[in-house]
Amino acid sequence: MNITQSLYHSFQRYRTLQTDHVKALPVVILMPHSACNCRCVMCDIWKGNKNLKQLKEEDITGLLDSLKKLGTQQVLMSGGEALLNPYFFRFCAILTRYKIKITLLSTGLTLQNHAEQLVKYVDDIIVSLDGDEPTHNYIRNIPDAYQKLEAGIKQIKQLKPGFKIAGRSVIHKINFRNWPAIIESAINLGLDSISFLPADISSHAFNREVLWSDQRQHEILPDKSELPELLSLLETIISTYHVKFENGFIAESPDKLRKIYQYYAAWHGLTPFPFKKCNAPWVSAVVEADGTVRPCFFHTSVGNIREHSLKKILNSDTAIRFRKELDMATNETCLKCVCYLHLSPGTKLN
Predict the structure, then answer these.
(1) What was the pLDDT predicted at 205?
(2) Cβ–Cβ < 8 Å for 107, 4
(3) Burial tier of 46 (Cβ tally within 10 Å: 0-12, 13-18, 19+)
(4) What CA–CA distance (Å, rounded) separates 170 from 157?
(5) In sequence order, what are the residues at sequence separation of 6 or more whose Cβ sits closer than 8 angstroms to the Cβ of residue 229?
(6) What is the C-alpha separation between 101 and 1, in angstroms, rounded?
(7) Do 64 and 223 form a contact (C-beta atoms < 8 A)?
(8) What pLDDT is stored for residue 3 in this prediction?
């Protein structure tokens, strides 16, 4: 993208934020496959593995006109596990011809098997990391999950030493005491960075047709009595790993990391839920494995790409009204959101 194109795209992003009519869409999240190859304790995606849904090549080619018109710069391949789709690399080949950068969000279990194609077709990878080896394997509910993740990272780095692989860790009741070990594991695995977020326990995302019961929530939610320990450990991490914050290895700032404690404290009525500066519905869209389109992971569907183009869906009366009326300061879904995105018109994507 040259300077003129960049300025035009920034202007279109500004118009989108001002008018609620999507003129530019820098990020699209695709879910090529609905199933997952892990059985994580804090996620229900794997429980729907028998009801397989997956994107097809015609779905991807059908998106191209909208992606081109909206100036999409990055596609995040999420899931489920995107690599379970047998046409995953065909999708990548189609998108890269349009100079769209591809980020893969993966469990890491099959990275080694696909290493050569990954370094060819994917720009960077974000893997899930839940703890040191025993904790990671327990949470993933796969006996050798950590070993496979380690082997995949090693193989990719051998093929392409500069290839960026980041880690992402969900912190919750089961692993918060293992937090320092997560950071050490990220270092030992050779990851380029590690980021953290709290567990979503309240939404319909992650294949939850029925919201979690209070009992199920408390299997993941730290107890009120555990919060002082969580806060103390968090402050120790901020002090001990100050260099890792400064050099960006830990992606969040200390203040942003403290919001994980605030989030869990809010569930116990001790603090308000932390403020989130988010404009995801104006700068991105989620396309699920059956073609369903959502403004973000957590809000309800606004259409399906197998019925209408993505551009038409995002600029339908329903979608525009949703953005106009969305007040993130009061919306229940936004208040309890764990994963948010904010891109100003001039923000450049890596």
Answers:
(1) 57
(2) no
(3) middle
(4) 24
(5) 177
(6) 12
(7) no
(8) 64
pLDDT, residue 202, reads: 74
Q: Compute the distance between CA of residue 222 and CA of residue 123 in angstroms, rounded to an integer.
A: 36
- Please tell me the distance from the alpha carbon of residue 108 to that of residue 171, in angstroms, as a whole number: 18
- DSSP 8-state assignment for residue 117: H
What pTM, to 2 d.p., does this model score? 0.93
Between CA 79 and CA 83, with CA 82 as vertex, the angle to 5 degrees is 150
Buried b / exposed e over 73-110, threshold 16 CB at 10 Å, is: bbbbbbbbbbbbbebbbebbebbbeeebbbbbbbbbbb
Measure Cα distances from 162 to 8, 123, 239, 249, 250 in Å.
31, 11, 29, 15, 18
The C-alpha torsion from 335 through 140 and 194 to 346, rounded to 10°, is: -50
Residues of the chain with pLDDT under 50: none
Give SS3 for 265.
helix
Distance CA 63, CA 120 (A): 22
- Structure tokens, 49: 């593995």
Please report where in the chains the tokens 């609905």 appear, as a residue: 34
At a CB cut-off of 8 Å and minimum separation 6, what does 26 contact? 9, 13, 71, 72, 73, 74, 283, 284, 343, 347, 349
Using DSSP's 3-state secondary structure scheme, residue 114 falls into: coil
Q: Are 20 and 324 in contact (CB under 8 A)?
A: yes
Q: Residue 265 and residue 111: Cα distance in Å, rounded?
A: 37
